[in-house]
Amino acid sequence: MGRMEIWINPACSKCRSALSLLDAEGADYTVRRYLEDVPSEDEIREVLQRLGLEPWDITRTQEATAKELGLKEWPRDAGARDKWIAALAQHPKLIQRPIITADDGTAVVARTEEAVRDALSR
């Protein structure tokens, strides 16, 4: 198993659970506090490609910022993709977490123990 990077918000209980599980399994990982070390649009594009998801799939639409931006009304199509990615880069709080990227080029949104184990098994 190679090295992983996990994007976390330390205040998020699911992030803390994921870290506990990684530690319990002796995983080799680096932590990225993405609210402080904000991902660029290109990094978000790369993670989306690894996840096989669209930007709206990893957007926390319940966040206050999402409501202010009116994200729920934004189109979810190829033409709007860049607008969504720009919003995630400008407002990293909107990014679903935690996201684990593995060095085999894959990634998972690790909100459950199963998803964390999925990342560990790659």
Task: Please describe the structure with a list of short key phrases separated by commas or semicolons.
122 residues, alpha+beta, Glutaredoxin, 4-stranded mixed β-sheet, 4 strands, globular, Arsenate reductase family protein, oxidoreductase, Arsenate_reductase-like
Walkthrough of the structure:
With 122 residues, the protein is of the alpha+beta class. It has a single domain, classed as 3-Layer(aba) Sandwich (Glutaredoxin), CATH 3.40.30.10. It has helices at 13-24, 41-51, 64-69, 81-90, 113-120, and strands at residues 4-8, 29-33, 99-102, 107-109. The chain has a four-stranded mixed sheet, with helices on both faces. A hairpin with a 4-residue loop joins strand 3 and strand 4. Helix 1 crosses helix 5. The model has no long low-confidence stretch (mean pLDDT 95).
SSE blueprint:
Elements: E1 4-8, H1 13-24, E2 29-33, H2 41-51, H3 64-69, H4 81-90, E3 99-102, E4 107-109, H5 113-120
Helix pairs in contact: 1-5
